[in-house]
């Protein structure tokens, strides 16, 4: 995948576990890069690179607060992922229903 395409592909952005972890953390509210970096066993430079990818695809926004840059989650950019997963959602429901029925049968014995 070319670098240009990777920079606009939300699927590429969320493929990395560190970036998914960053998104999880930002789901609780905006954070500075140092707070994010402290949660991962990578360099601040690596976190900055991950943040650049997330900004380029629009998954995070940044605002300046004095000398600090605060990052926020932009969950609307995950819509392509939601749309892609939607047809598979029925399989999860079916599996959960089957599990529920199985647990009820076990409980009755």
Give structural notes.
The protein has one domain (3-108): Arc Repressor Mutant, subunit A (Orthogonal Bundle), CATH 1.10.10.10. It is an alpha+beta fold. 59% of the residues lie in helices and 13% in strands. Strand 2 and strand 3 (68-73) form a beta hairpin. Strands 1-3-2 form a three-stranded antiparallel β-sheet.
What descriptors fit this protein?
Arc Repressor Mutant, subunit A, 13% strand, alpha+beta, 3 strands, 109 residues, 7 helices
Protein topology:
Blueprint: H1 3-6, H2 10-14, H3 17-26, E1 31-32, H4 33-37, H5 44-56, E2 60-65, E3 68-73, H6 79-85, H7 89-108
Antiparallel strand pairs: 1-3, 2-3
Structural class: alpha+beta
Report strand %. Answer: 5-15%
CATH topology: the name is Arc Repressor Mutant, subunit A
Count all strands and give the number: 3
Distance between the termini: 55 Å
Shape from CA axes? elongated
**Which second-level CATH architecture applies?**
Orthogonal Bundle
- When the domains are counted, the total is 1
